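The following block was generated as part of the benchmark described in Methods. Ligand: N-carbamoyl-L-aspartate.
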Amino acid sequence: MKHLIDSTDLSVEEIDSILNLAQHIIDNKEDYSEVCKGKKLATLFFEPSTRTRLSFEAAMMELGGNVLGFSSADSSSATKGESVGDTIRVVGCYADIIAMRHPKEGAPMFGAMVSSVPIINAGDGGHNHPTQTLTDLLTIKREKGRLDNFTIGLCGDLKFGRTVHSLIKALSRYKNIKYILISPKELRVPDYIITEVFEKNNIEYREVSTMEEVMEELDIIYMTRVQKERFFNEADYVRLKDTYILDETKLKYAKKDLSILHPLPRVNEISTKVDDDPRACYFRQALNGKYVRMALIITLLENAGRE
Ligand code: NCD
C-alpha cells in the first residue's frame, strides 16, 4: 500500500496493524514524539474541514514532523486554473506525504497517479472518506472490543454521506455484521453499495425509514448529517434535514451498551442532551481520529521508505 484512496485499499490485516499501532501510540505517546522528525505533511483541502485537517496536522506535530498546506481552494492556485495533477506534482517537491480533500469524486485517485509521495484521500465528494473509516473502526474496536458480530444502524444521509460508503465497504470483510439502513427514500445508499457490497457478499441488510422501529436491535448507531453542500436544490435539503433527531426519548428503547457514533460535524441529528450519556462516543471518536492518523502517517512513510 503506497496511497490510501479507498477503504478497501487496506486488507483486513493492514487495518488490524494500523489499529494496533494506534492503540500502541495511545498507550506509549512519548515513544512516538520524534518518529517523523524532519518529515513534512501537506494538507491540501479544496473543501471545508475542521476535524480531518486539524487532526492530520496535530497527528504530524505529535510525531515530531512539520505541516504545510492550504485550507480552502480559494487560497490555492486552483483559482488560477491549475489542475489537480500539477498541484500534486509541485507539492510532492515540498512534502513527504499529502492529505487531500476535494469536492470532485476521484480527484485524490487522479492525484495518486502522478504523485511521487504517498497521497491520502481525506474525502472526495460524496464518494469515500477512508481515514474517517479508520477512525470509526478504532472507535468500534475500543468501545466494543471487537469488529465483528454486531448490528449497526446507519442513519441519515446515506446517499451523499461518504463516511457511510467507506465504512460499509470496510466492514463488509468482517463476520456476522447486520446492517440496518435508516433513511428517507430520497437518501438511500447508492445502488452500487447494495449490489456490489451487500448482495455480492451475501450480507444481511434492511432498509427502514424510522429509528424507532429498530432502536432496540442496535449495538451501534452511526448518525450522519444531511449533506447540504451536495443537494441540487435548497427546498429538498430543508425538507429532509431534520428527518432524524436522536434524543433521550428514543434512547429509552435502546440497549444499555449501545454505542452512538457520528463522524461530526453535528447539525441537529443528535440532541445535545445526549452528550453526557455514556453511550455517546462521538467526541471520543474525534480524538481517536488523531491517533489513527498518526498510525497511518507512520505506516505510509515506512512503506514509501522501503521502495
Ligand atoms: C465528514 C465528511 O467530511 O464527510 N466529516 C468528517 O470528516 N468528520 C462528515 C460530514 O461532513 O458530514
